Amino acid sequence: MDRQELIEKYLAGKLSGEEAVHFETLIQENLEFRDEVVFFERVKKAAKEHDQKLFKEKLQKFDVEKPVLKPKRYWTMAIAASVALLMGIYLYNISQPLDPDSLFSEYFEPAQNVSLPLVRDEGEDRLALALSAYEQKEYLNALKLFDELAPDKTPTWISYYKGNTLLALDRTDEAIKVLEQYVASRDSLALRSHWFLALAHLKKGNYEKAKEELSMLQGSNDSFKQEESKELMARISKSLPSP
Known about the structure:
Layout: H1 3-11, H2 17-29, H3 31-46, H4 52-65, H5 73-94, H6 100-107, H7 126-135, H8 139-148, H9 158-168, H10 172-185, H11 190-203, H12 207-218, H13 226-239
């Protein structure tokens, strides 16, 4: 696989395990490749801008700042083609009605375990086993283990991970119920739950409710997903008809 194809798959989030290892090796060992990746990442980010004028200005700036590469004509053509493609995708996306499932898939990533660092030998610690299954994306097993935990001996924040597990299993209504109950607890991760509640409501087509959850997250002092929440709010608002 050539480097251009590798970068394209990286930007699309479609690298296989072997390709990801090769990609990381190139990033660490090849300065020219690293510069190319940074350049295309910046172009992709620019493609998400909602102000077309700002988008064009950024592309002009990138043209001045793009890394000096070896004089290979196909790289020049690849850059031009990629910019044109991203511009086309951008213009197409802003003209399309909301697709709740696609937006959910684009933004949803199960929360990382920030509550209980795990060691290799969890033994008979059921909580650690449940979180280990969660971290390994074994969501059915994780949900089973979460449900087996004794409520009076389980930290409140486990609901945060259970809600994420239910979202990953496409059990949206159950996830909303679990996360709403957790938000009401005002526990340590409750503010972050607004992000996942927003995505859950978005998936169900409840756009106003999704915007409410995003607003609550943005009004908090938690830095979690602030940039993404503003971007998603703008995309929802732009696609909805004016009242």
